[in-house]
Design a protein that fits this description.
With 320 residues, the chain is an alpha/beta fold. The chain has two domains: 5-114, no CATH class; 120-256 and 304-317, Rossmann fold (3-Layer(aba) Sandwich), CATH 3.40.50.720. 37% of the residues lie in helices and 22% in strands. The protein has twelve helices and 15 strands. The strands form three sheets. The protein has a six-stranded parallel β-sheet, sandwiched between helices. The chain has a five-stranded mixed β-sheet with strand order 2-3-1-4-5, sandwiched between helices. The radius of gyration is 23 Å and the shape is elongated. The two termini are 43 Å apart.
Length: 320
Amino acid sequence: MAKGFAAFKLANTLDDIKIKIPFGKLLSDSYIEKTKLKKILLKVPIEISEINIAGIEGYEVQIPITASILKEKDENYIRTIIDDSINQMIDEECHSFVFPEEIMPYVEDKEIVISNGKGLQFLLLDKVIEKCINLSEKKLKELNFVIIDGQDSLSDFCIDYLYDKVNYLTIVTKRPVYFEETKEFIFEETGLAVEVLEDPLNNYIESDIVINCRKEKNKAFYFYNKKAFLIDFVSDKSEIKNVLLKRKDLQVVDDISLKINKIEYDTKLLQAAIFSQNRIFRSWLMYGYKKDMIDRIEKVLSQFNLEVKDLYQYGKKIIF
């Protein structure tokens, strides 16, 4: 039976890569290494073992690359091996992939579903917000929510999730005209008057929980309420560090841990497993959010007993 996802890993040493060298015991180590590296490129011998994440079967795939090979060989050599390894797993009907950070530069441009855990974190926004509320002195309807627009469909997803649950919602954006229709629809649907502010900001805004959808660096954090929560699953670690240095009062949530039926799972692996089974998630990740997706996404998510175990700020657990 085909497995739905593949988690790649590097080989620890050259000896872990299964390539036979005839009369190897009679040959010098340098000759064996040189010959092995040539054969690796010709055969691309991946090592496959089965894994199970939350009842979903997948593969762990050792590719014939070590950390030293990554440093010493040229880009074409590395890319050829990675591409061939991916194609082998596509032939095994894998629909989503997890890669070690070391080879991410070689795969980021590929039209495949790559799991970094962030997609699943955004889909569990309701549970993340619930955790934040538990740390807040206010109730949900009293909180001022802010969405920092990333100029893509992720912002639309967050708006669609929030608008019928909250009393106060602000959108900070470089494209205010884009949200005019959204404002009108939400007001007619719920009576909620969404405030749209043009970026860059020049005044403080009421902001208890901020959801950042913008990958590019921005200075909006200077204008948030004191002790506001900033949910930021898109910025890199250097930007998270920058925010924390300049706004020590903010509670920045940039990572979460997840569990199903009391068992904690690696977020990247869990996303790969769940997304491998559901076309709607893969479509959302690959091609962006569409307005008719929200109900289907929530319906499929409800099939899993997913819980947010802990919130993290720059690698440290936020204590409740």
